[in-house]
Write a structure and sequence with these properties.
By secondary structure, this protein is of the alpha/beta class. Helices cover 39% and strands 17% of the residues. Helix 3 links the parallel strand 5 (99-104) and strand 6 (121-127).
């Protein structure tokens, strides 16, 4: 199946289920691979900014569609750590050894797991990545917009979380570029509203629609995974980790980026005043991807 901008939707039979992935069909098949861990819920076609940054630096971007999203078989009880086995399976399928990793928002913990646990991951970029919910010195909810407060406030009760996500997904199922700002109003500071022009708003809306088209379960299992221990020690990470975080972020508050910067010894942190969850990438992502690409030369 062909997606916009030359992206191609593929499936890998794992024996125990199916793993879906999206590959840049316009990239050189022999180019170094950048594995992308999408946000929550933000699977599907990769936005113009990230895809363009990967292409400009000579990467072949490959998005791993987490279980429960799209055509990837659901894996109830999955953890941040267990996702690394899927990354490894995908790389074996592609015939790739060394790679770099990037994650946005809910994909942030997954890119950190790659760099912490997979010897062949040379480094990662975490864009507005979530911090660990069980960290005693991080107030996980403080600073979130109301929709996220309601969502994660329900995460301790499976029935309540399911009910919340089903209501939210009903609104996202038909969202378009014009209505996405209204649908996400409590989560969008001024910087993100300004960022959402015609193209970027359409990209976000398409990702949201794609993510809930087959139900809520990828989103649901992400939220539960964030609420559990990640299963690895960030203080042991020695390979480069580039952190991008906006101070005005209402989805993943600034304190998460500050916490990660303080607890990852190898972090190169860009903690940016006046930027939000989406806008922070507009000015800083291209440079971060260039830094990653240099690690594979």
């Amino acid at each position: 199946m062909t997606l916009p901008n030359g992206q191609q939707l593929r499936q890998l039979d794992l024996g125990t289920g199916t793993l879906e992935y999206i590959s840049d069909g316009l990239a050189d098949p022999a180019a170094p691979v950048l594995v992308y861990h999408h946000g929550t819920p933000a699977a599907g076609p990769v936005d113009h900014g990230l895809l363009g940054a990967a292409r400009a630096t000579g990467f072949r971007l490959v998005e791993l569609v987490r279980p429960g999203y799209g055509g990837s078989t659901r894996a109830p009880g999955r953890t941040i750590t267990s996702n690394t086995s899927l990354t490894s399976a995908l790389l074996r399928h592609l015939g790739v050894d060394r790679f770099a990793s990037v994650g946005w928002s809910g994909g942030g913990p997954h890119t950190l797991a790659d760099v912490a646990l997979l010897p062949n991951c040379v480094g990662s970029v975490s864009i507005a990545g979530v911090g660990p919910a069980d960290a005693p010195d991080l107030d996980f909810l403080a600073g979130m917009g109301q929709d996220n407060l309601d969502e994660f406030g329900a995460a301790h009760d499976s029935a309540a979380l399911q009910a919340f996500l089903e209501r939210a997904a009903a609104g996202l199922a038909t969202v378009d570029g014009e209505s996405v700002k209204t649908e996400m109003a409590s989560l969008l500071p001024a910087a993100d509203l300004a960022y959402l022009t015609d193209v970027t708003a359409d990209d976000l809306a398409a990702s949201l629609r794609w993510s809930v088209a087959n139900g809520i379960w990828g989103w649901f299992d992400d939220d539960l995974a964030f609420s559990r221990a990640w299963g690895f020690d960030l203080s042991s990470v020695s390979k480069p980790v580039i952190l991008l975080q906006g101070a005005d972020d209402l989805m993943v508050p600034f304190a998460h980026g500050q916490w990660l910067a303080a607890h990852i010894p190898s972090a190169r942190a860009h903690l940016v005043p006046g930027e939000g969850h989406l806008s922070v990438a507009a000015k800083h992502l291209a440079g971060a991807i260039r830094e990653l690409r240099a690690l594979l030369d």
